[in-house]
Amino acid sequence: MSSQGDSRLFHGGPIVTMDDGAPAPEAVVTKADKIHFVGLLEEARTLARPDVTEVDLAGRTLLPGLIDAHSHILWAAKTRGAPVVDVRAETVPTYKALLAKIRRRVAAAKPGEHLIFFGLDAQLHPDMEQPTRAQLDELAPDNPIGIQTSNCHALFMNSRGFEACGINERTETPTGSIIERDETGRPSGKIAEAITWRALEVFYDAWGDDRLSEEFHASIGDFIQNGITTVTEHLYLPHYKAYYLSALKQGLPMPRVAAYQQAVTADMQVEKLNIGDDRLWMAGVKIHADGSPFIGNIWLSEPYLETAITLERMDLKPGHTGSLNYPQDYFEKMARTYFGQGWRMSIHTQGDRTIDMVLDLVEDILTKTPRADHRFRLEHCALMRKDQIERAQKLGVLCSFFINHITHWGAPIEDALFGPERAAHYMPAGSALDAGMRISLHADTPMTDPSCLELMKAATTRLAGDGRCLGESERLDSLSALKAVTIDAAYQIGMEDRLGSIKAGKHADLVILERNPLETPHLELANIGIAATYLAGECVWTNA
Amino acid sequence: MPEAAARVPLITIGGFLGAGKTTLVNQILGQAGGQRIVVFVNDFGAINIDYDLVQTRDADRISLKNGCVCCSLNDDFVESVVGFVKQTESPDAIVVEASGIADPRALDSSLAMLETAGMVRSDAKLYVLDAANFQDLEFDDAETIIDHAAVNDIVLMNKSDLVQPEARRKINDLLAEAAPYSQVVETVNCDIAIDMVFGAAPVSSKITKSSGNELQTPQHAKTYQSWSCEFDGLLDREKFEVFAMSLPGKCLRAKGILRFSDAPEEPQLFNLVGYRATVEPKPRTEASALIRFVVIGLAETFDAATLEASFAQVVSEKRNGASD
């Protein structure tokens, strides 16, 4: 690590600026935490101070720091960090194996210890059944336990878990949430959507602050080691602030955080945060219009396929077309309120009917109260139709695509959930690009691991885990994919004038890659090594 | 890469430090039996090869007189593999010994890339588990090993001689639940039959009749059994698929050159290891039209007669030779 006042001169390898004005310069000079000069090496040497540190790229490629436009850096630490037990299908291949792991963990638990298992997956655990409260009571009579689905949107708990969270037969189901109940009104095991995340906070609190600080530290490392210098916190809650402040105070290399506060009601106070020199700021307000396609909580014009996965493991009725998370007028009131307060909106939308509803709303709002540069965002956009993309583009609405759905769940998306026609345009990044939209790509960590190079590979190949390609026509070229994790991602979070490209005056956030991603075959993009990460002019990670 | 070349089978070996990976690598190099094998190892210094076998030795590469090569596993892994595969005479197999404690999936993206590029075919994934040490582990360490084992095809429950039968049974039961797609083989000094690592080559033109053989290995002469056949004819594709689905649990490996009645001119290569099977077009490098098939399993669960009878049902046409 170096001190803030340092100056560096980078040269000796390709420099991909993502700035049309200076596409391939010879050298970059940083001064303290800003980019000072981009251009010819000779000129850079003349300008640089005598004590400048020269960084010889030795053939490696310099790029702007990478940006994941939709992630949850602190929430990832809460959700996936120890002592959460990972039961995702990658290493716990069946539901039976998952139950066995829970049994072993419960046997090793202290009485009353809170236990969470992350990664139950109706698409990838072939023998999955919906766990009931009674079954979980039998597995763990003395410990509060919860099993969270890999899509994060649902939680199964035992009686001790429900008690710990204070959810019982008298609990009213909050608007926008689901509590499954037996005929007497007693919660029967499964809760879904917003109440899930509130319930989990009880477990995280029980594990204490030290645990969270430690895991947040690890989460920061995961992003920085992948060259990611700007992230978002897409379900920001006011009490998160203390952890970011503490991380900054400790001098941890926390990527810049664009916070999107989660709205579940229309009467929330949204703080106009802006900490440090663009280290943490309130970028907007996030609302879930619908939920996860993997548990059936999205609103569709055409129903889900009727397969063993949808009918049995997901427990959907034939002809299921899902619904919105909130009653439409409740949702609209929230969206109008926060938009009216001047916030940029970021709306979780997966089903095409949900997207129709949101675009209708945006059109109405903009007709009545036109606003230039509103940068209204739609998140994930799994089943967005072509006509909706064109409409969104006309309205100035931007899409951020959760492209890793294809790599992780591509086969069940096509075979079990939506069929080949919808799968060919699932997460339609290519169509959005063709329509002229400035798109972004995201990993939605903790749902998938942070890596912008994996996002680029996913978007350029659209290869599922079993090797099939989902929708050749939706594939991106490398440059467009790189824009979607640099300058266009910066645009979506409202920081294109300070982040996302290598340009004098911008923040000195940089990454050195072992190979130039624009000259690397698409299949090899995820294998490119990260050599070093610079945040605000400081070298915060190297692989040396 | 010429279109006709077959993808080189790539075998991975995982396991914690001290489990016996290097022992296994040494065994493989010593018993290659004419196959040209390239081995990548993480701990290059620990490889202990009989001086007489060594032809040349560099800082990160040992070439053996039997044609095998042992390399250090480093950042150039992908490039090195490509280099070997593109040689005029590409190796018969590539073995990668993955790092002791690293995530067993750390190599996955490199392997997927090589596989998609048509260079290699992911073959057996082996995991060496130290049975003697396993029973004393804390929850977290034991679970890490279980998670790692579960993503492999064959788990060698090594040092099984140091564990009481009751404890062995417990580990077997645990793995049966936690790693349902892995086959478990109890070993001492990783004494797994070399054919189990590579799959017996179903290309010997000597066998013209089906045969049930006991595999001769130095220490475990009667642990494994095999059944094989060779004949001129055609198979029914659908029936074969059903047959192949029934193999896991009855054997550890199966391999074959197949011809199906719906496409008699397109020979296919079949490979099964544990619960994973692949069928891909066989490059036409030889004129032979014979079907060849070999199955290998553990002696205690192997039933050559039943396999033979089931396979006979798959045959739709036979011109000579016999599998009955």
Automatic annotation (TrEMBL), chain A:
This is Amidohydrolase. Pfam families: Amidohydro_3 (PF07969). PANTHER family: IMIDAZOLONEPROPIONASE, PROTEIN LONG AFTER FAR-RED 3. Keywords: Hydrolase. Residues 54-540 form the Amidohydrolase domain. Transmembrane segments: none annotated. One of its GO terms (molecular function) is hydrolase activity, acting on carbon-nitrogen (but not peptide) bonds. The lineage of its organism: Bacteria, Pseudomonadati, Pseudomonadota, Alphaproteobacteria, Rhodospirillales. It comes from Denitrobaculum tricleocarpae. InterPro entries: Amidohydro_3, Metal-dep_hydrolase_composite, Metal_Hydrolase, YtcJ-like.
From TrEMBL, chain B:
Transmembrane segments: none annotated. Keywords: Chaperone, Hydrolase, Nucleotide-binding. The keyword Electron transport does not apply. Coiled coil: none annotated. Pfam families: cobW (PF02492), CobW_C (PF07683). InterPro entries: CobW-likC_sf (IPR036627), CobW-like_C (IPR011629), CobW/HypB/UreG_nucleotide-bd (IPR003495), P-loop_NTPase (IPR027417), Zinc-reg_GTPase_activator (IPR051316). Residues 224-315 form the CobW C-terminal domain. It comes from the Bacteria. GO terms for molecular function: hydrolase activity; nucleotide binding. It catalyses: GTP + H2O = GDP + phosphate + H(+). The keyword Endoplasmic reticulum does not apply. CDD domains: CobW-like. Belongs to the SIMIBI class G3E GTPase family. ZNG1 subfamily. Zinc chaperone that directly transfers zinc cofactor to target proteins, thereby activating them. Zinc is transferred from the CXCC motif in the GTPase domain to the zinc binding site in target proteins in a process requiring GTP hydrolysis. This is GTP-binding protein. It comes from Denitrobaculum tricleocarpae.
